[in-house]
Amino acid sequence: MIIPIYQVDAFSDCLFSGNPAAVCPLDFWPSNTVLQNIAAENNLSETAFFRKRDNLFEIRWFTPVAEVELCGHATLATAHVLFNHLRYKGERLVFESVYCGKLEVYKKEEYLTLNFPVDKIKPTLPPDHLFQSLGRKPLEIWKGKTDYLLYYPSQEDIEEIKPDFVLLKKIETRGIIVTAPGYEYDFVSRFFAPYLGINEDPVTGSAHTSLVPFRAHRLNKPEFEARQLSTRGGFLKCQLMGERVLISGKACTYMIGSITLA
To answer: Which residue is catalytic, options 41, 46, 104, 160?
Structure first.
């Protein structure tokens, strides 16, 4: 079996920044073991698999060690592949996820916009090891469906965090978001997910389903420009639309190839 593969840098307008994702179009769904082995072999934070069904595309996302319920940058990368390499006609794509239902992506000039459901977050108590593993205590801690969100007073706090990933990996959660007001942007963030095999994710679109409503309710405004402060870094435009979040970014192709399964 031959499976095409594309590697795309998402939430960036140039190579070697943003978040790299692998994208694999499929004619049928192989076993979960095959999908997980491909993702592990790719060794990127996410590999997206998709197949066409009627007027939409079924989509799934895998880290090197597990399937996840939602991934923003790999969905953006998949849309980029469909629009730019697979000659999809139109300016709107509909994906369907087992966990999140229908997800739309729009194309407008150089930007792709994800339409994702808002994550419902609530104040919570910290799990064991959390503050110790990050080296500093936040002003507030919240919990959504899959992630913790920690709010700090300044951008320097986010830049200076040096996690102990051995400790952080003991926390059984998809990820830990740390965020603060930014100097050049409305807010900045970082995202750690060692429990799923990703110490620090370069740019995490799905984290903004928590970050955008969190900031919108505090600042009483719906639109934001955000920066994820990983080594690679990434820029996102975001807008709160009721129970949905619009997350916009650019993408560029790094590599095109094929996977041969004997």
So the answer is: 46
